[in-house]
Amino acid sequence: MRPNKEQGERTRINRRGEDKPEDSGITEREVEQVEERSRPRTPVIYEIVRRHGDEEMARPITSLWWSGVAAGLSISFSLLAEAILHMHLPQAEWTPLLSSFGYCVGFIMVVLARQQLFTETTITVVLPVMAEFTSANLVRLGRMWSIVLLANFAGTLFAALFCTFAPVLTPELRASMLEVSHHLVGHGWAESFFKAISAGFLIAAMVWLMPSAESAQFQVVTLMTYLIAVGGFMHIVAGSVEGFMLALNGHVTWSWMAFDFIAPVLAGNIVGGTALFALLAYAQVMKEI
Protein backbone atom coordinates (compact mmCIF):
# COMPACT_ATOMS: atom_id res chain seq x y z
CA MET A 1 0.00 0.00 0.00
CA ARG A 2 1.35 3.44 -0.96
CA PRO A 3 1.84 5.72 2.07
CA ASN A 4 -0.36 8.79 2.12
CA LYS A 5 1.08 12.31 1.92
CA GLU A 6 1.02 12.89 5.70
CA GLN A 7 2.85 9.63 6.40
CA GLY A 8 5.43 10.61 3.78
CA GLU A 9 6.06 13.88 5.66
CA ARG A 10 6.66 12.17 9.01
CA THR A 11 9.88 13.17 10.70
CA ARG A 12 11.89 11.53 13.44
CA ILE A 13 12.07 14.72 15.50
CA ASN A 14 10.80 14.93 19.05
CA ARG A 15 10.72 17.97 21.29
CA ARG A 16 14.36 17.48 22.30
CA GLY A 17 15.49 17.21 18.68
CA GLU A 18 16.26 13.48 19.12
CA ASP A 19 15.37 10.60 16.84
CA LYS A 20 12.28 8.59 17.68
CA PRO A 21 10.15 5.88 16.06
CA GLU A 22 8.47 6.77 12.79
CA ASP A 23 4.94 6.24 14.14
CA SER A 24 5.42 8.80 16.94
CA GLY A 25 6.89 11.56 14.76
CA ILE A 26 5.29 14.83 13.63
CA THR A 27 4.92 16.10 10.12
CA GLU A 28 7.14 18.75 8.62
CA ARG A 29 4.12 21.05 8.50
CA GLU A 30 3.58 20.50 12.21
CA VAL A 31 7.24 21.31 12.89
CA GLU A 32 6.72 24.62 11.07
CA GLN A 33 3.60 25.30 13.15
CA VAL A 34 5.54 24.67 16.38
CA GLU A 35 8.25 27.11 15.29
CA GLU A 36 5.68 29.76 14.31
CA ARG A 37 3.89 29.53 17.66
CA SER A 38 6.99 29.39 19.83
CA ARG A 39 7.91 32.53 21.72
CA PRO A 40 11.28 34.02 20.70
CA ARG A 41 14.13 33.03 23.00
CA THR A 42 15.60 35.69 25.27
CA PRO A 43 18.80 36.08 23.17
CA VAL A 44 16.61 36.72 20.12
CA ILE A 45 14.71 39.49 21.92
CA TYR A 46 18.01 40.94 23.11
CA GLU A 47 19.41 40.97 19.58
CA ILE A 48 16.28 42.64 18.16
CA VAL A 49 16.41 45.43 20.75
CA ARG A 50 20.19 45.80 20.38
CA ARG A 51 20.04 46.08 16.60
CA HIS A 52 17.21 48.59 16.85
CA GLY A 53 19.33 50.72 19.17
CA ASP A 54 22.34 50.45 16.88
CA GLU A 55 20.25 51.58 13.90
CA GLU A 56 18.79 54.51 15.83
CA MET A 57 22.23 55.76 16.93
CA ALA A 58 23.34 55.78 13.28
CA ARG A 59 20.48 58.04 12.15
CA PRO A 60 21.22 61.65 11.11
CA ILE A 61 20.85 64.40 13.72
CA THR A 62 18.00 66.02 11.77
CA SER A 63 15.99 62.79 11.74
CA LEU A 64 16.50 62.22 15.45
CA TRP A 65 15.61 65.82 16.29
CA TRP A 66 12.32 66.00 14.43
CA SER A 67 11.31 62.52 15.53
CA GLY A 68 11.97 63.63 19.12
CA VAL A 69 9.98 66.83 18.67
CA ALA A 70 7.09 64.81 17.23
CA ALA A 71 7.25 62.51 20.27
CA GLY A 72 7.08 65.52 22.61
CA LEU A 73 4.03 66.85 20.81
CA SER A 74 2.35 63.44 20.75
CA ILE A 75 2.97 62.74 24.43
CA SER A 76 1.09 65.94 25.33
CA PHE A 77 -2.13 64.17 24.38
CA SER A 78 -1.68 62.00 27.47
CA LEU A 79 -2.34 65.04 29.68
CA LEU A 80 -5.16 66.23 27.43
CA ALA A 81 -6.94 62.87 27.42
CA GLU A 82 -6.46 62.40 31.16
CA ALA A 83 -7.82 65.91 31.83
CA ILE A 84 -10.90 65.27 29.66
CA LEU A 85 -11.71 62.09 31.59
CA HIS A 86 -10.99 63.82 34.90
CA MET A 87 -13.34 66.67 33.98
CA HIS A 88 -16.28 64.48 33.04
CA LEU A 89 -16.03 61.66 35.59
CA PRO A 90 -17.65 62.05 39.02
CA GLN A 91 -15.36 62.75 41.97
CA ALA A 92 -14.99 59.38 43.71
CA GLU A 93 -12.26 57.12 45.05
CA TRP A 94 -12.34 55.02 41.88
CA THR A 95 -12.12 57.99 39.49
CA PRO A 96 -8.29 57.82 39.05
CA LEU A 97 -8.62 54.17 38.00
CA LEU A 98 -10.53 55.31 34.92
CA SER A 99 -9.01 58.73 34.23
CA SER A 100 -5.52 57.17 34.26
CA PHE A 101 -6.35 55.42 30.97
CA GLY A 102 -6.08 58.82 29.30
CA TYR A 103 -2.37 58.83 30.19
CA CYS A 104 -1.86 55.93 27.75
CA VAL A 105 -2.99 57.90 24.68
CA GLY A 106 0.21 59.85 24.05
CA PHE A 107 2.43 56.81 24.59
CA ILE A 108 0.37 54.77 22.13
CA MET A 109 0.82 57.51 19.54
CA VAL A 110 4.58 57.73 20.15
CA VAL A 111 5.37 54.01 20.26
CA LEU A 112 3.21 52.85 17.36
CA ALA A 113 4.40 55.78 15.21
CA ARG A 114 8.05 54.86 16.03
CA GLN A 115 8.86 58.35 17.28
CA GLN A 116 11.91 58.98 19.47
CA LEU A 117 11.08 58.98 23.18
CA PHE A 118 13.98 59.47 25.58
CA THR A 119 12.96 56.80 28.07
CA GLU A 120 12.86 54.15 25.37
CA THR A 121 16.49 54.90 24.54
CA THR A 122 17.55 54.13 28.12
CA ILE A 123 17.53 50.46 27.04
CA THR A 124 17.66 50.40 23.22
CA VAL A 125 20.88 52.38 22.81
CA VAL A 126 22.47 51.11 26.01
CA LEU A 127 22.52 47.45 24.93
CA PRO A 128 24.87 48.11 21.95
CA VAL A 129 27.19 50.01 24.29
CA MET A 130 27.22 47.15 26.79
CA ALA A 131 27.87 44.65 24.01
CA GLU A 132 30.86 46.67 22.79
CA PHE A 133 32.01 49.09 25.47
CA THR A 134 34.14 51.59 23.57
CA SER A 135 34.63 55.33 23.69
CA ALA A 136 33.09 55.62 20.23
CA ASN A 137 29.91 53.91 21.39
CA LEU A 138 29.79 56.08 24.51
CA VAL A 139 29.98 59.18 22.30
CA ARG A 140 27.15 57.81 20.14
CA LEU A 141 25.10 57.16 23.29
CA GLY A 142 25.66 60.71 24.57
CA ARG A 143 24.79 62.14 21.15
CA MET A 144 21.56 60.15 20.99
CA TRP A 145 20.44 60.95 24.53
CA SER A 146 21.15 64.69 24.32
CA ILE A 147 19.43 65.17 20.95
CA VAL A 148 16.34 63.15 21.81
CA LEU A 149 15.88 64.61 25.30
CA LEU A 150 16.19 68.22 24.08
CA ALA A 151 13.86 67.47 21.16
CA ASN A 152 11.30 65.90 23.49
CA PHE A 153 11.43 69.00 25.72
CA ALA A 154 11.05 71.26 22.68
CA GLY A 155 7.92 69.37 21.70
CA THR A 156 6.39 69.36 25.18
CA LEU A 157 7.18 73.06 25.73
CA PHE A 158 5.53 73.98 22.44
CA ALA A 159 2.48 71.89 23.40
CA ALA A 160 2.27 73.63 26.79
CA LEU A 161 2.56 77.07 25.16
CA PHE A 162 -0.10 76.15 22.63
CA CYS A 163 -2.51 74.88 25.30
CA THR A 164 -1.88 77.94 27.51
CA PHE A 165 -2.00 80.82 25.05
CA ALA A 166 -3.80 79.61 21.92
CA PRO A 167 -7.62 79.84 21.92
CA VAL A 168 -7.95 76.09 21.43
CA LEU A 169 -9.07 74.84 24.87
CA THR A 170 -12.05 75.82 26.95
CA PRO A 171 -11.22 77.43 30.31
CA GLU A 172 -12.71 74.38 32.02
CA LEU A 173 -10.47 71.96 30.14
CA ARG A 174 -7.37 74.08 30.76
CA ALA A 175 -8.22 74.19 34.46
CA SER A 176 -8.65 70.41 34.44
CA MET A 177 -5.22 69.98 32.84
CA LEU A 178 -3.65 72.14 35.54
CA GLU A 179 -5.47 70.22 38.26
CA VAL A 180 -4.22 66.89 36.90
CA SER A 181 -0.69 68.33 36.63
CA HIS A 182 -0.56 69.24 40.32
CA HIS A 183 0.33 65.66 41.23
CA LEU A 184 3.94 66.64 40.42
CA VAL A 185 4.06 69.16 43.25
CA GLY A 186 4.73 68.42 46.90
CA HIS A 187 7.32 65.65 46.52
CA GLY A 188 10.84 65.80 47.86
CA TRP A 189 13.89 65.18 45.66
CA ALA A 190 14.32 61.61 46.90
CA GLU A 191 10.63 60.74 46.50
CA SER A 192 10.57 62.03 42.91
CA PHE A 193 13.77 60.11 42.16
CA PHE A 194 12.41 56.77 43.37
CA LYS A 195 9.04 57.29 41.69
CA ALA A 196 10.94 57.91 38.46
CA ILE A 197 12.94 54.68 38.85
CA SER A 198 9.71 52.69 38.68
CA ALA A 199 8.56 54.55 35.57
CA GLY A 200 11.92 54.04 33.85
CA PHE A 201 11.83 50.32 34.61
CA LEU A 202 8.27 49.97 33.25
CA ILE A 203 9.10 51.78 29.99
CA ALA A 204 12.20 49.61 29.50
CA ALA A 205 10.10 46.51 30.18
CA MET A 206 7.61 47.71 27.56
CA VAL A 207 10.40 48.03 24.98
CA TRP A 208 11.65 44.52 25.88
CA LEU A 209 8.16 43.05 25.44
CA MET A 210 7.45 44.62 22.05
CA PRO A 211 9.34 42.10 19.84
CA SER A 212 7.27 39.20 21.17
CA ALA A 213 4.02 41.16 21.46
CA GLU A 214 3.37 41.24 17.69
CA SER A 215 -0.34 42.11 17.29
CA ALA A 216 -0.69 42.83 21.02
CA GLN A 217 1.63 45.87 21.02
CA PHE A 218 -1.31 48.20 21.67
CA GLN A 219 -2.23 46.25 24.79
CA VAL A 220 1.39 46.13 26.03
CA VAL A 221 1.82 49.91 25.71
CA THR A 222 -1.54 50.52 27.38
CA LEU A 223 -0.81 48.20 30.32
CA MET A 224 2.68 49.51 31.09
CA THR A 225 1.82 53.20 30.81
CA TYR A 226 -1.44 52.75 32.74
CA LEU A 227 0.61 51.34 35.61
CA ILE A 228 2.80 54.46 35.55
CA ALA A 229 -0.25 56.72 35.78
CA VAL A 230 -2.27 54.80 38.34
CA GLY A 231 0.82 54.17 40.46
CA GLY A 232 1.68 57.86 40.57
CA PHE A 233 5.14 57.27 39.10
CA MET A 234 7.04 60.00 37.24
CA HIS A 235 8.05 60.11 33.58
CA ILE A 236 10.44 62.81 32.44
CA VAL A 237 8.79 63.55 29.07
CA ALA A 238 5.10 63.13 29.90
CA GLY A 239 5.70 64.93 33.19
CA SER A 240 7.44 67.83 31.44
CA VAL A 241 4.18 68.72 29.69
CA GLU A 242 2.54 69.01 33.08
CA GLY A 243 5.50 70.88 34.56
CA PHE A 244 5.63 73.38 31.69
CA MET A 245 1.87 73.96 32.01
CA LEU A 246 2.25 74.68 35.73
CA ALA A 247 5.22 77.02 35.17
CA LEU A 248 3.59 78.94 32.33
CA ASN A 249 0.48 79.49 34.44
CA GLY A 250 2.44 80.64 37.50
CA HIS A 251 1.75 77.60 39.70
CA VAL A 252 5.46 76.72 40.05
CA THR A 253 8.74 78.52 39.38
CA TRP A 254 11.12 77.70 36.57
CA SER A 255 13.83 76.89 39.12
CA TRP A 256 11.47 74.30 40.65
CA MET A 257 10.97 72.88 37.17
CA ALA A 258 14.72 72.52 36.63
CA PHE A 259 15.95 71.38 40.04
CA ASP A 260 12.97 69.77 41.76
CA PHE A 261 11.42 68.01 38.76
CA ILE A 262 13.77 67.54 35.81
CA ALA A 263 16.89 66.69 37.82
CA PRO A 264 15.48 63.92 40.06
CA VAL A 265 13.05 62.48 37.51
CA LEU A 266 15.61 62.35 34.71
CA ALA A 267 18.10 60.62 37.02
CA GLY A 268 15.46 58.16 38.23
CA ASN A 269 14.28 57.26 34.73
CA ILE A 270 17.88 56.59 33.65
CA VAL A 271 18.55 54.42 36.70
CA GLY A 272 15.32 52.46 36.23
CA GLY A 273 15.73 51.93 32.50
CA THR A 274 19.49 51.53 32.27
CA ALA A 275 21.07 50.63 35.60
CA LEU A 276 18.30 48.20 36.49
CA PHE A 277 16.45 46.85 33.47
CA ALA A 278 19.14 47.07 30.79
CA LEU A 279 21.76 45.50 33.05
CA LEU A 280 19.38 42.69 33.99
CA ALA A 281 18.46 42.14 30.34
CA TYR A 282 22.13 41.90 29.39
CA ALA A 283 22.92 39.62 32.32
CA GLN A 284 20.29 37.13 31.10
CA VAL A 285 22.05 36.59 27.78
CA MET A 286 25.72 37.52 28.26
CA LYS A 287 26.75 33.83 28.32
CA GLU A 288 24.66 33.03 25.22
CA ILE A 289 25.70 35.76 22.80
Structural account:
- With 289 residues, the protein is mainly α.
- The protein has two domains: 5-37, no CATH class; 42-285, Glycerol uptake facilitator protein (Up-down Bundle).
- Helices cover 73% and strands 0% of the residues.
- The chain contains 14 helices and no strands.
- The longest helix has 32 residues, at 254-285.
- The chain is globular.
- 41% of the residues are buried.
- The model is unreliable at 5-24 (pLDDT under 50).
Instruction: Examine the secondary-structure arrangement and name the CATH architecture of the largest domain.
Output: Up-down Bundle
End-to-end Cα distance:
50 Å
By helix and strand content, what is the structural category? mainly alpha
Radius of gyration: 23 Å
Overall mean pLDDT score? 86
Number of helices: 14
Number of DSSP-assigned strands: 0
Which overall shape is indicated by the principal axes computed on the Cα atoms? Answer: globular
Poorly predicted regions? 5-24
As for the CATH topology of the largest domain, it is Glycerol uptake facilitator protein
**Helicity level, as a percent range?**
over 70%
Name the beta content range: under 5%
Per CATH, the superfamily of the largest domain is Glycerol uptake facilitator protein
